Each structure stands twice: as C-alpha cells, then as structure tokens.
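Students often ask why inverse folding is considered easier than folding. One informal answer: many sequences map to the same fold, so there is more than one right answer. In these notes we will look at a single instance of the problem. The structure comes first.
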C-alpha cells in the first residue's frame, strides 16, 4: 500500500514519521521548498514526545512528484488555504480507489476534495495531536491524539475501517466518530474561540479565562457556532460547550494556540477564513447571522495586513 502525506509541515511530517516507523511505504510531499529540500538532503529530524528520531523518509516537493506515481491513501495536511493548490498538484497521482484522509482544522474541506474523488472515498475527521516545525527538516509531535475519523456517506464506511487500521498500527490512536459532523463542529468551537481570541489579544489560553470580557466573547462566539452547526444537523448545547472550552483553556493554560504561533511568532497568514469566517459564511447561506464570528475574522485579517503576513 502506497501512502502519501500531501502537506508535510508540522502535523503531516509527524503522521508521516509515525507511519514510516511502522514500516509503511510513505512518501512526504510538501509545497514549501525549504522543507522539501531539507528533508531530501538530510532526512527528517523529529522529536516524538521527547524521543529524538532521524528518519530518511522519501520526500518530493509538490512540483516534482514522478509522473507515474500513484498513491492508495493520501493524508492531506496542508494549511486550509493551501489545500486547493495541493489537490491540483496531486490529482494525477490519484487512482480510481485512492482514499483521501482529511483531519485538518476548518469547515467544508470535503467540498474541495470532492472535486477529485467521490464522497465515499473521503475520510474526514479531527485530531488533537499537536505538532510544530522548528526549522525546515526539524519538527516535533506531541500528545496521544486521538484522531477521530468518519465517513461522509454510508458507502464510505469500509474506507474508514481501512484508515482506522493504518492509524492504529501506527499508534496514532484512532477513534471512529459516532457523529462525524458533531466532532468537526466541536473542534470549530475550540479553534473559533481559543485560536482567534488568543491571536487577537496576543495571550495564552489561560489568560482568556482570567478576563470576564474574554469569557463573554468565548460564550458569544460559541453560541453563534452552535446555531450555525444546526445546518449540518448538529445540535450542541452552548452552555455545555462553553464549560468544556473554559475547562480546556485551564488544562492547557500556558500554551499559545497554533494560530497565534503562525501570525504572531512567524508572520504567516492564518486559517481564520476556514474557521470563524466559514461559520459566518455558512450562516449567511442559511440566513443565520453570526456577526461576532465575522468581526473576529475581520480583526484577524486586519492584524495579518498590519503585520504584512505571508
Ligand atoms: P504547517 O504550517 O506546519 O504546514 C503547512 C505548510 O506550511 C507546509 O507546507 C509547511 O512546510 C509550510 N510551513 C511550515 N512552516 C512554514 C514557515 N515558517 N514558512 C512558510 N511555510 C511554512 O501546518 P500544520 O501545523 O502541520 O497544520 C496542518 C493542518 O493540520 C492545518 O489545517 C492545521 O490547522 C491542522 N492541525 C494542526 C495541528 C498542530 O498541532 N500543528 C493540530 C491539529 C490540526
């Protein structure tokens, strides 16, 4: 079975490393030239929960994948705004049964992926593994997951089983989600509050809990997300989700979320259009207003512009 990781930054190379260590035939693919060059030249240096590994995993830049290469399973791990380009680069390497796995943050990636494979071949999900990229070729993977996965349509269930077995063998701690859409929307609540607010306020997760104003914003954003989630048949209780988020912020208090790290530390563009922006857009499509989510998305964009983020 040939596996490709399409988008091998922090999390992609982490998953790639876990699969490679179990003997899977894995190829890393990435669009950022420094990352591709570093791994091709000197392998991947990765810290997995404190253990150092140096792995010579095959790697291609997305523009140089051999013409005849075909992959049976492709894990998509780009940033949301890079997904379209990556799909274009890999489309000729997809065969009639290729399974596409997407556990990226953000809403509705399946709409884009469905332009390349039918819905039954898309395995969607979310993950709480955390990863970072210190410099090209040097990354870390932390935590224990899980990776929650599910099918978009009933016929996709056998593909979920296949991906589950791969992830389980690679010790990536898969779970079959009992309600895929609910798992996705709950993760949107986490990202739409913690990522967005810590980036705007330039603070740690624990700081959100310390401010009455910030906690009210967490509540209001959550309330809107919960209302918009109903268009996907997801019925969450805003108070329960809010309590879960406050608890989570306490547990991972000293941490700066990934959006903060992208924009504030590295001046990189954020996935805000696929999180709060996507909530507001989807809401508008269904006549449900989400003005606080739109405001938060605009604030993050203003900050990106101010910092000339790329
Ligand atoms: P990433 O930013 O590390 O990698 C995405 C792309 O950006 C890769 O092509 C990578 O090589 C490139 N890149 C990395 N650092 C760069 C830099 N400084 N300058 C220019 N390009 C750079 O993204 P990720 O964290 O692996 O996330 C992939 C997807 O997984 C996203 O949707 C993210 O939200 C989601 N996710 C990430 C984590 C995490 O802990 N990293 C956890 C859960 C979900």
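Output (designed amino acids):
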């Amino acid at each position: 079975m040939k596996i490709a990781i399409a988008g091998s930054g922090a999390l992609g190379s982490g998953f790639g490393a876990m699969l490679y260590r179990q003997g899977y035939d894995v190829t890393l693919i990435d669009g950022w030239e420094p990352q591709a060059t570093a791994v091709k030249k000197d392998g991947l240096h990765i810290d997995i929960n404190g253990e150092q590994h140096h792995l010579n995993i095959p790697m291609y830049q997305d523009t140089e994948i051999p013409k005849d290469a075909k992959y049976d399973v492709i894990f998509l791990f780009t940033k949301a705004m890079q997904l379209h380009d990556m799909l274009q680069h890999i489309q000729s390497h997809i065969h009639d049964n290729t399974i596409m796995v997407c556990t990226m943050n953000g809403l509705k990636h399946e709409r884009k992926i469905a332009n390349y494979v039918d819905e039954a071949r898309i395995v969607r999900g979310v993950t709480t593994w955390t990863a970072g990229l210190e410099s090209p070729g040097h990354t870390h993977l932390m935590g224990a997951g899980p990776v929650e996965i599910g099918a978009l349509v009933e016929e996709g269930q056998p593909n979920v089983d296949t991906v589950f077995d791969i992830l389980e063998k690679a010790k990536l701690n898969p779970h079959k989600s009992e309600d895929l859409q609910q798992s996705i929307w709950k993760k949107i609540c986490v990202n739409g509050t913690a990522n967005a607010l810590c980036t705007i306020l330039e603070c740690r997760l624990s700081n959100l809990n310390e401010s009455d104003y910030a906690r009210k914003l967490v509540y209001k954003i959550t309330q809107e997300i919960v209302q918009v989630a109903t268009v996907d048949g997801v019925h969450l209780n805003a108070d329960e989700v809010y309590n879960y988020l406050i608890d989570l912020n306490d547990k991972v208090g000293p941490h700066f979320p990934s959006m903060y790290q992208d924009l504030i530390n590295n001046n990189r563009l954020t996935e805000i259009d696929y999180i709060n922006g996507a909530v507001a857009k989807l809401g508008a499509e269904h006549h449900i207003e989400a003005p606080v989510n739109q405001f938060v998305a605009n604030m993050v964009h203003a900050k990106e512009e101010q910092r000339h983020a790329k």
